[in-house]
Amino acid sequence: MAKHVSRHDLLGGAVLVAGLIIPVILYFALGAFWAYDVKTWFLTGQMAYEHGLFSPYSLQAGMSSEFPGGYYNYPMPWLLFCYAAYAAKQAFSLDIAQWMYLVRLPELVFTLASALLLHFWLRPRIGERGAALAAFAFTVFPGIANVVFGPIIGYFDPIPVFFSLFALVLFERKRLDWAALSLGLGAAFKYYPLLMLPVFLLSLKRKEDAVKFATLAVLTLLIVSMPPLVFDAGAYIKASTFISDWAGSTSLYRLAYSALGWDTHLWFGKAVPPGVDLSLLPIVSAASTLILLAAVLLAYAAFYRRKLPLNDGILLVMLALLGFWRFAEHNHALWAFPFAAAVLFTSKRLRPFAAIWLLAVFLMSLPYVLLVPDWFEPASAMLVPLASIAFYVAIAWSGRSAGTLKKK
User: Fold this and answer.
1) Alpha-carbon Rg of the chain, whole angstroms?
2) Whole-prediction pTM
3) Average pLDDT for residues 80-106, to the nearest whole number?
4) Which residues contact 148 (CB under 8 A, 6 or more apart)?
5) Cα separation, 377 vs 366, whole angstroms
6) pLDDT, tens digit, for every residue of 138-173?
7) What is the per-residue pLDDT for 300?
8) Cβ(188)–Cβ(75) below 8 Å
9) DSSP characters for 289-347?
């Protein structure tokens, strides 16, 4: 006897399909759009192809306070793809538009894969319609109204987001080795998933399991990082820490930098103006680092002492970054998005904070898609760290979220 398909299931399926189709349409419509990050990937691939695979790190490490851009300060996997994409351009005589479609393809693929994984993860807990809405929100909400959508701007954040979420799914299914490997792969693209590692370790009851999990996750990252470290450790480390004194566009420190007369990116691409006093920079950098460290440690403590669900613990750490990190940028909101969506659909007590956070992410994006007054961009950008801090406090002091992520 055929299983009855409810109207909710049909509606959910339609919403899910729409959420997958819209990014594909945007990819084909805007895939040849020239953006700064795409230019960076082009110059990075060209540099690696013509001067050696690790040359972008050496160039980045040697840059002074005045330089033209085209830098690369990420771990090796995306560098390999930039190299491969440029090599394909040369081998097959691709024009620049064809190359731009190629370099954006992984971002599209992992955006869709992350949405499907989010749907797969949530469906047993909140049903077809809720899971489909969460997946739709992941692809379309950041896609149309936010610059975090990779296939338009060129960010590759959907890749570490996928591996981070996949690590959580595997962990819940007791596939600990594969979960550790997935988390390490996520950190191999961008380092931030490493901050999730203690949350996983605190969830393990046996010390042996925790040691093995940490070893596999860190070893995965080290194996990927080893080639550039062996080639030129100094250049790799300096390139990786190049932005250590910058402030992000969606960071509260943007206001502090502005008050001190500093550019958030410290005059990236142009000379430091004469007469600017940067004597306070080491103090501001040290203080902001200590504040972030305290927020992350408190997130671990709240997760462990209040016996929060694993998803809430991971979200706490991501919200600490978005609320207290000096270099928080627009695209970083995607890091917390799957975990925030889960709370939105599963926790009545925390739903208002999740909704406010999602609204802040939406408003942050409006200057990029609408003609709005000049004052609106900094005002809307500040909503994200403020909403993140409020959400962070609500989770940390809420106690165990009622029924969060338990299967029906």
Assistant:
1) 21
2) 0.92
3) 96
4) 142, 155, 157, 330, 331, 332, 333, 334, 337, 365
5) 8
6) 887 754 444 445 556 678 999 999 999 999 999 999
7) 97
8) yes
9) HHHHHHHHHHHHHHHHHTT--HHHHHHHHHHHHHHH-TT--GGGHHHHHHHHHHHHHH-
